[in-house]
Structures are given as C-alpha cells and as structure tokens.
Amino acid sequence: MGSTQLSQLLQGTAGVIAEDELDARLALGRPLRVKLGLDPTASDLHLGHAVVLRTLRRFQDAGHVAVLIVGDFTAMVGDPSGRSVTRPRLSKAQVDEAATTYLEQVTKVLDPDPARLEVRRNSEWLATMGIEDVLQLAARTTVARMLERNDFAKRYADGQPISVSEFLYPLLQGWDSVQVRSDVELGGTDQLFNLLVGRQLQTQEQLEPQIVITTPLLVGLSGPDVDGPKMSKSLANFVGLSEAPGEQFGKVMSIPDTLLAMYVLHTTGWDQGRVDEVLAGLASGSSHPNAIKRAVAAAVCDLYHGAGAGARAEAEFDKVHKQHEAPTDMPVFDLAGSGVGAEDTLSLTKLLAITHLAASGREAKRLLAEGGVRLNGAVATIDEERVVAQWADTVLQVGRRRWVKLA
User: Fold this and answer.
1) What is the average pLDDT score of the chain?
2) In 3-state terms, what secondary structure has residue 346?
3) CB-based contact 26:64 (threshold 8 Å)
4) Helical H segments across 219-328, by residue range
5) What is the separation, in whole angstroms, between the first and last Cα of the chain?
6) How far, in Å, are 308, 351, 353, 404 from residue 363 at the CA level?
7) With contact defined as beta carbons under 8 Å apart, do 173 and 198 qualify?
8) Are 212 and 192 in contact (CB under 8 A)?
9) Residues 316-336: pLDDT tens digits?
10) pLDDT at 88
11) Where is pLDDT greater, at 188 or 358?
12) Nearest-angstrom CA–CA distance, 332 and 86
C-alpha cells in the first residue's frame, strides 16, 4: 500500500502497533475487519467519541468493514481504564437504553451501509459464558501482568480497591476481538492495555493478531491545556453530537485558546492539507485565534447537522453575543403543564429550578447573587415572587447560552 494512503488512514492517530504489520495486512487486498468497542454507559456521544469514530470512517471510505461492538455486557462490568476508583455497576435496563441512542448517533459519523458496517453486541458471546469458561479465560493472564497497567499499579500503590471484575474487563474486551476476528482494533490512548490483550488472546487462539491503533483523548471544554481532563458527560465539559447547532457553536467558542490546535486536528473533519494550513496560521500569528475558533465551531455544526448549519449558528451567535438580542428560536416552557396552578405563587429561584436553567434552588440563588440571571434582558437583582400567570411571556436567561420563554 502506498505511504500516502497509509498516512491518510492514520491521520491524527497517536500510535500504531505495528505499522509494518498494518501495511502487510492491507497488501492482502481484502477488506479488513476494523473493530471499535463502545460501552453504552451514558446516553450521549460527544466530540471525544468522534475522534476515534472518524478514524474508523476513514477505513470504511478506503473499502474496509467497520465492526462496531456495542459493549452491552462489558458496560455492566465497567471499564477500569483511566479510573482512580471502581466504576459503579450499571443495570441492564440502563445499558440497553443508552445502547439504543448510541446506535442512532454513530451514523452521524459512520457509513451505515451494511456492506461497510457490522454491529454486534458482546452479550452475544459473553452472556452465555459459564463459570468454567470464565475461569479458563482468567487463566490466560496473571495478576502481575494486570498490575503492569498504570491505573491499576497506581491504585494498588495508593491502597485503592481493585475488584476482581475489573481484572476481568481487559480479558472480556480482548475476547471480543477473538469472536469477531478483527484485523485492526481502534481505541483511545487510555485503551492501549486492553487492545494489547486482544492481540495476546488472538495469538493464543492461533489467529493473526490485530493491529492496534490508538487515538488521542480530546480534552474537554473546561481544560486549561492539552493535559486537562478528557471530554466527558460526567464532567459536563462535552459537546454532544446530537446537540443543536447553536449549542455546539457556543460551546466550541468557549474553549480556551490553548486547546485550539487540538480541536483543529481532531474535531473538524478537515483534510490534512487544510489542518496544516490553519495550524501554520495559528502558530505564526497571521490568523487570529477567534477567527480560527469560529471556523472550527462552524465545521463541527456542518459535520453533524449538514452544510450551512455552521453559518446559521454563527449568525445566531452574533445576534445574541454581539447585538445582545434574544435568540430567534429558544425553548418554550409551558407553565400550565408543569403541575402548578395559574394562581400559585412562584419565586424566581423556584422558576429557574423547574425550567432546568439551574440545577437546584441553591444554584439559582448563587446565579442571582452573581448577576447571572436576566428577565426580559434586564439583570435580576432580587428573588421576586409572582403569581404563575404573571410569569407568562417572560424571557429567562442564565449566562450567555441558556434561554427559556415562559408560556
């Protein structure tokens, strides 16, 4: 395979084990089975997930088969990768609900053509294993090998508990690779140990070991620099693939300039030539960071909502943040349908809570004290009370991006 085509497949990746093996496997001239496992532990996929999904899409576009493993069984065990404590167990119902939304969202990135996308749930083979099967799988490695993992080693040294099920997790993920006979497995850099276990198990089963390709972990919105916490729904620092264009645009505009190069590389879907051009302008100072940030935000909107979505989101962003006008479209909250009577009295803090502009009454009071709440464009300074009917047609605003019109 030509080096140009190989470099296109590996654009933006962090590491390959091993590139010569990948080149040899590609030279076979058959579609490769490229595996990616996603444990449905939450309902939303975000830009962090899209980093590895876009690598998988490049393999699809080159004629290979994406084998998407929905980890409905492993999600109930809990991936210990990057964890300092044991992950809480999820119920089957929680996992099934999240799995449904995952499958709806992955096609925002992946080609859904059945000839190019194979979706499997690992409960197909893992849920049917008996205790003898589990013991045989567990015997394929050692405790010493497991403690080579940085996160396990640190927890062990710090006296933090490590459950036996967490030791089993890499073996279960690796067994997925045996079952689907993957040629390549993709994953974030925090997944490297698990991916290598897959190679080990395939070798033990006399299969050609999978090539391992890792992708960088996208730092979340609040990260001060490239070593900040990765994008995560639990940290509320994410941009969801299914969020509205205006929300996506506004969130990307909020990233610190120190993360801009990372977002250019890993969120835009631009080809390497465009990426290099933009990064050169950023490094030389010939392009203003704000202009680049706007281009990145628009590219994200276009990727997940279609061409033109970015331009419309940018115009709406300027309307709100430059002209200081209310957004064209904002959520409408039906007071009558909220379970309160028209003659009941509601305080502003209670109203902020029931409209979900604040997570609680305590947060609402803090926002008021900080001047972060506006009523019809004016800063709210007191926690006023009104009869419910009197709140109708009021526009509530919290911060720069959260708006609700009461009806």
Assistant:
1) 90
2) strand
3) no
4) 245-253, 260-267, 272-284, 289-305, 309-321
5) 62
6) 36, 12, 8, 17
7) yes
8) yes
9) 999 988 887 878 778 888 887
10) 63
11) 188
12) 40
